[in-house]
């Protein structure tokens, strides 16, 4: 028996339909509590370690979608022929020369545009090139170089060539080469042997191709890390003895030079650019302050607010990294061996700890020491799930990556330069650039700061090559302060900066020359 509808039922039903259409968005709101309950259930599942199948599908989807949008060191290189080693290719530039080995010479035009863009923010180096081009202070210099091959270093290499030098170049890092820039240098006639993603064997082969040449013998070395110097010293001692000067810009390479000098085996003068004021105060500090975030963001998309980060080392690189991370709201710890640097970290508001004290709780571990085995397998075993591990020092020895290449651990490449190392229980550690230099392997660095370092390197080469006999003995030297100040002065016009000039009375009072140098040689 049906119950009769009350009067006005049809109008009421029509009104309800009209209201439902008019306020249809309310449906999602009224269902929200159910969604929240379901979300709580999902969260319980989400916190569990993913299954092996889940890991595979995740890594496939991430790597597939990120191939184009996450290119390291701004290298927009076609990877269609990645399987073919450049050593197996026969390539010539437009002039018919094959005295190079790069990924793809056809990318030279794009690389040239990259170099031209870099030149816009390296006005001081270009100014030096124009001032000294007529004098050719490097005429007769045969420079063999081993540095990062990027648009910025290309400007330096072409400046050295414009000043009269002949150059042969390889890369100091297997991941930092911009392939299109290497192609542009090869097209311009520079004998460059480098490509992104070299194997260890390729790395040493490229260095050897630069040194071991019929009818050409290097008389100057520009190094970043000491590998080139070490190779020439060990493999070609007769060439090493005839070198007129070595210019080294990294902590690692300088340490090697001082070791040679202490052992009485350094038979040529060397210039320690790393400890020059214009390198320490600018490249190491300001460059790393900006590029650490760039490298981490491009590779991991991590949000730093509230994250716990430990920075190993509070030298200039560590100071830059800590300042950047603190500014974004990260909780930053510092490890140090030097009580002076440790005290500086404390005064800057950072807690100084031993790595073992915080390794279980931190979200990110960054090494900046130039030492070896700073992060050991024991540390890696104790890290929390999804901890990010990376290196901002030059050498790849700071993180014990070798200990991770064991049968019990699984490696999954999820993005360019991003590996998940997975433990048997499902825990994963995110390793960036396989423990090599993060910023130049995974991102870019500020061009202006590199202009300061490049100008310093160029002046150091000019100084050593043109120095009268006897000025420099077989030892390691710091760049003269007058030269440091000259490099700084070349970059001031970019900021429309105006220096105050001492009066004669003021200069006499301070015991200084009005034109400098304004700091003693020991000032750092």
TrEMBL record:
GO terms for cellular component: cytosol. GO terms for molecular function: adenosylhomocysteinase activity. Residues 9-21 have a biased composition (Basic and acidic residues). Residues 284-445 form the S-adenosyl-L-homocysteine hydrolase NAD binding domain. Pathway: Amino-acid biosynthesis; L-homocysteine biosynthesis; L-homocysteine from S-adenosyl-L-homocysteine: step 1/1. It comes from the Eukaryota. Binds 1 NAD(+) per subunit. The keyword Hydrolase applies. Residues 59-78 have a biased composition (Low complexity). This is Adenosylhomocysteinase. It comes from Lonchura striata. The lineage of its organism: Eukaryota, Metazoa, Chordata, Craniata, Vertebrata.
């Amino acid at each position: 028996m049906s119950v009769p509808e009350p009067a006005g039922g049809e109008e009421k039903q029509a009104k309800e339909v009209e209201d439902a259409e008019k306020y249809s968005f309310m449906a999602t709101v009224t269902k929200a509590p159910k969604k929240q309950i379901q979300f709580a259930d999902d969260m319980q599942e989400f916190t569990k370690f993913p299954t092996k199948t889940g890991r595979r599908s995740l890594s496939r989807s991430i790597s597939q979608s990120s191939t184009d949008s996450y290119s390291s060191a701004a290298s927009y290189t076609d990877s269609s022929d990645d399987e073919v080693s450049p050593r197996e290719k026969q390539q010539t530039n437009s002039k018919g020369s094959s005295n190079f080995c790069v990924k793809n010479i056809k990318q030279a035009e794009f690389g040239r545009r990259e170099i031209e863009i870099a030149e816009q923010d390296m006005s001081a180096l270009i100014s030096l090139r124009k001032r000294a081009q007529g004098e050719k202070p490097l005429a007769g210099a045969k420079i063999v170089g081993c540095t990062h091959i990027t648009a910025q270093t290309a400007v330096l290499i072409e400046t050295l060539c414009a000043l009269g030098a002949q150059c042969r170049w390889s890369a100091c890092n297997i991941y930092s080469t911009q392939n299109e820039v290497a192609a542009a240098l090869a097209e311009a006639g520079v004998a460059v042997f480098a490509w992104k993603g070299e194997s260890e064997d390729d790395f040493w082969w490229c260095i050897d191709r630069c040194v071991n040449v019929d009818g050409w013998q290097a008389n100057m070395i520009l190094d970043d890390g000491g590998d080139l110097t070490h190779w020439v010293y060990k493999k070609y001692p007769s060439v090493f003895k005839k070198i007129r000067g070595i210019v080294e810009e990294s902590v690692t390479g300088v340490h090697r030079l001082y070791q040679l000098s202490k052992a009485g085996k350094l038979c040529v003068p060397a210039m320690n650019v790393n400890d020059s004021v214009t390198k320490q105060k600018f490249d190491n500090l300001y460059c790393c302050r900006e590029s650490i975030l760039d490298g981490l963001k491009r590779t991991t998309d991590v949000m730093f607010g509230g994250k716990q980060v430990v920075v190993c080392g509070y030298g200039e690189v560590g100071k830059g990294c800590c300042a950047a991370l603190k500014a974004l709201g990260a909780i930053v710890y510092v490890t140090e061996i030097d009580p002076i640097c440790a005290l500086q970290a404390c005064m800057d508001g950072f807690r100084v700890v031993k790595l073992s004290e915080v390794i279980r709780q931190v979200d990110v571990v960054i090494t900046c020491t130039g030492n070896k085995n700073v992060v050991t397998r024991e540390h890696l075993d104790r890290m929390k799930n999804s901890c990010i591990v990376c290196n901002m020092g030059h050498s790849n020895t700071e993180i014990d990556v070798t200990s991770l290449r064991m049968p019990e651990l699984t490696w999954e490449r999820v993005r360019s330069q991003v590996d998940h190392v997975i433990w048997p229980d499902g825990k994963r550690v995110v390793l960036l650039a396989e423990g090599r230099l993060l910023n130049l392997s995974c991102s870019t660095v500020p061009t202006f700061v590199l202009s300061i370092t490049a100008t310093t390197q160029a002046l150091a080469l000019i100084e050593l090559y043109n120095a009268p006999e006897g000025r420099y003995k077989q030892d390691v030297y710091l760049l003269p302060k007058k030269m440091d100040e000259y490099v700084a002065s070349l970059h001031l016009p970019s900021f429309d900066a105006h220096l105050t000039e001492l009066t004669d009375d003021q200069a006499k009072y301070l015991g200084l020359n009005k034109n400098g140098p304004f700091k003693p040689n020991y000032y750092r």
